Amino acid sequence: MAMITFDAVSKKYPTGVVALDDVSFQIDDNEFVFLVGASGAGKTTILRLLLKQMEPTSGSIFIDKVDITAKGFKDSTLVRRNIGIVFQDFKILHDKDIFENVALSLQVTGAKEATIKSKVEEVLDLVGLSEKKRMFPLQLSAGELQRVAIARAIIGDRGIILADEPTGNLDPKTTWEIMKIFKKLDGQKTLLIATHNADIVNSFKKRVITVKDGKVQSDRRGGTYEL
Amino acid sequence: MKEVLNSIRRTPYQSLASFLILFFALFLTIFVFYLTSFFSSILSYVETRPQVIAYFDVDATEKNILELKKNIEKSGKSSEVVYISQDKALKIYKELNSDNPLLLEMVSANILPASLEVYATKPEYLAEISKFLDDEQIVEEVSFQENIVDRLLTLTTILRRGALFLSGFLVLISIVVLMTTTAFKIALKKDEIDLMQLLGATTFYVRKPFLVEGMIFGFVSASVAFGVFYLLYALMFPFLSSYLTGIPSLSFYSLDSYGLSVFPPSIFFIVLSYLFTVIFGITIGLIGNYLSTSKYIR
Asked: What is the complex's ipTM, to 2 decimals?
């Protein structure tokens, strides 16, 4: 189960900028959703709120019916262990090899070495990097690095995958390779992908939530990229 | 452990700074600890020695001497007065010179004076007792250790306070240096720390390698400092032995029955002081890195 609910969420920064204004939506378990909008529309704020990197000014956020914004709820660790995150700039550690980079995701949760080994092998196979597991990031292309990041995000029991512009730094061919991996996960994990790439959004024909000036402008199943 | 070793390898100069300051602080702490133990032990030893000894004319009668002994005891200024007769003096002399037959042949009880060994209740009574004995006609010579106990006590107190201040100051510097070098290491690993936290690592999980690193620095610095100190102690031992001729052993705060001999150092005392140093070193390392991680990793 990994259902996400935003209930009248607003976020106003100390500078006075309103990043989100009364945003409400619900994402079902194992649903594939694109989050689109211009730069500064509030996409990243939604992702950061889900990761508990910040708290909303008002409103509530639920993950599997647990209010993660409730006053008594302080444990961001529990929330984050259920979420895998993929960044535009990959955030791969350059002094660790590929296996170690992916393994980190399980190590921080206290998983046993034997479990880590088998699960990393499994997930590297899924993203097609089994042969390169002992290579270091500097030896890999940008597309391969993003596949490492995806492997790190999906490993283990993380029910939600958040991707913030995952193909923003990639060429068109590699972009499609990465999106194929996300497609493989469709129906297995709850996916929320923030993107600017209209081609991808239009070709996938999945649910699209469009944000503009901190508000949900449209929310359509089988939608297209419209700004 | 691999993480810790990598961290040390990646920041060699910061690691060296942490090690050196800890080494210096711990070496000095061991040094002042031994020095104060040494002086305290000497003080304890001196306190067990007679403080005023009156030697009598060889023709002084035992009756007169015992009468004088009674008068001193009655004054309330002595805690103990011991009478050493000529025969007993000879016996002691024979014991002390048992390995020199020539000296034994030359001496008989007649030429050894009887004596009174007086232990004062307070050091300030020593001069008074000494004068009282000196004024007696049957007393030929008074041996008075001045106020050596008092001086030793003052010296030990000053030394202990000075040592405490100096050690405290160095420990404080060590903690500050450790905090600074660890803060630098945290800054170097900022991306990794942020990522680990985003992946769901607990604060303790992120802090743990730094805490272990502090403990390792403490342990290694303490062990090296202790090793270097004992090397120097071993080199100085012959000089100390000749300086302390006649003193069989010095026990740590009169705890000889527990095998805590400072001079010559017993195995038990060495092991105990090593453990103390290591625990102290590990604690400093842990405190320094705990404070730093508390401030910079939340």
From this structure: 0.89
